[in-house]
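Researcher: Good morning. I'm working through a list of sequences from a screen, and I'd like to move beyond sequence-only analysis. For each chain I'm collecting a predicted structure so we can compare shapes side by side. This is the next one on the list. No need for commentary yet; just the structure.
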Amino acid sequence: MDSRQRQHIDTVLDLTSGSAGSRPAATAARHDDIIRSSWQRCIDDHGLDPTRMQEARILPWSQLREHQERVEEFTQIARHGLGDLYRQVAGIGYVVLLTDGHGVTVDYLGDQQAAAQLRRAGLYLGSDWNEMHAGTCAVGTALATGSALTVHQTDHFDATHIPLTCTAAPVFDSAGRLNAILDISALVSPLPKSSQQLALQLVKVHAHHIENAHFARVHRHDWSLRLSSAPAFVDVNPDYLLALDDCGRVIGHNRRAQELLERELGLPHAGPREASRVLGQAFEALFDARLEQFGRCLASLPAERRVLTLNRSGRTLFIGAVPPAPRWRVGRDAGAAEPAPIAAPLAALCGDDPALERQLQRATRLVDAPINLLLHGETGTGKEYLAKALHAASARHRRPFVAVNCAAIPETLIESELFGHVPGSFSGAGPRPRRGLIQEADGGTLFLDEIGDMPLALQSRLLRVLAEREVLAIGAARPVPVDLHVISASHHALEQAVRAGRFREDLYYRLNGALVTLPPLRERRDLDWLIDKLLGKDARIDSGARALLAAHTWPGNLRELANVLEYARAVCNHGLIGPDDLPDDFGRTASLRAAAAPVAHAPPPAPPPAPAAPSPHPYGPHHLPPEGMLLMQYLRAAGWNLSAVARQLGVSRMTVYRRMERFGIRSPNRRDTATSH
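Model: Good morning. Structure tokens for this chain:
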């Protein structure tokens, strides 16, 4: 503990114990009423001890993920605002934090070169800045008061944090409840607190923009009113937002509208955790106008003629009205809903598999969202096809689609391949500058396949590209701005790689703006559709071969299916694929897997019926060897269900079918596929 920390602890103790008279007036004046009230709460309500200095509290990954999942939709909307704010303050040493309503940092942008120092200070992803744990701080005190403020250096309660300057503004939901905190903080700053006035204004402005963006998302299916004191801003940057139900009653608003209407109605100001008292108020009770006057016709009037007057104060505002977006109903009848539409490039990837359709419906809504997408699925499930379809469905479809397989490029070359280089920047660089793949994707989509295999050293450089939207070539002095939509993919569980330290946690959250999961082929219900789509009009497939394909477990997924069908099409006669046309080793992997499976976890095979005397039968030769007789008994007992017999014997359906062929056994259910001798 240094002398400054000891002096700070004495100041906190003096002020909170009522002995402020012992301190010089100048010392007392450093801390305003909000700070002094917070210090008192820390002592009286939270039971914190100012003499006990505590390190920053960083939540473990599993707990952080729980907080992030609860606010995932809001975070996706806020992320663009965070990036814009960070670009304005990063050059003067600030980091940007977004916390949830509990004070836990769920998104973060900061200088990766100082990551270790920032983490120790708590200016990092997962940090808990709730006042009850951290004491007086910008995030915690903004949560407690619902007000934007700066907590500068010795304003902090805990002496551990007095080097920091932190400025925060609350972000409210459309019901008036505190939803999140936007904060910018720095490890070092000038001594005067007045040096943070610009920081406070920036945070308040960006919190307002994020709040408005969230309002627009939540109330996209409601009538929304935009109100402003100036006609020039009513349609582009309104001060006040209101959402109305079909009866013209307020069902949502932004914070500025809430405060305006509380004053207009003479209502007490609601606390940060309370629902707004403006909700439920009728439009005619607030404004000197009838709701019928406003509608689609407003768009045809110039802004200066769209005037509205508040009933009580007579204040004049300018108005714009936004009609509700149409709702997509699911269901075929009146009470049910119609499935949400899927963009045509995405719809071409699916037959009638419900799980995949849900993913594609969600992906359709995300194609032009300002967030990065992470695709997950087993090898061969079609992640690159999905990435190309997402690009084709987006507004960037006329711009480049650049695919990078992070596992296929040698580690020694991947940096220059991605970022480019200037002449002579390294041995073998060549005499001409080279644009990297990131720059080649400018204006379009960058697809990073097998992102989990990217070397750890390059992950920080990629993070900088995503955060700052600019790329610095090897050997270059100045970065080049890039406009990218980044889609990444992996068959690995990246969360495990993060926990193992093989993948940067902050990069993972930057890439995972939204997760789209592709189901493995064995779980899809549209196999027949896929078979017909891959074969096209060049070949047909009979029921026996189709049944064998349906019984296979497809460890190689779509890639394996395509290879099997391509082989079968090449060897079949007259364009008709039968069981004999499938590859010789088809199904062997599944058989080996079944044979190696622990017997204790599988139901015991049903005992075969007592052997019958070999006698003539209509489905095979008159004399079968013992193995053939045993197979016949299994088949009869199972009602000629080949899948059930395969499970009992621990082999693949293909193996059962081939044994039947060898012994001349024909199924009464499939005479068209039988083999006779």
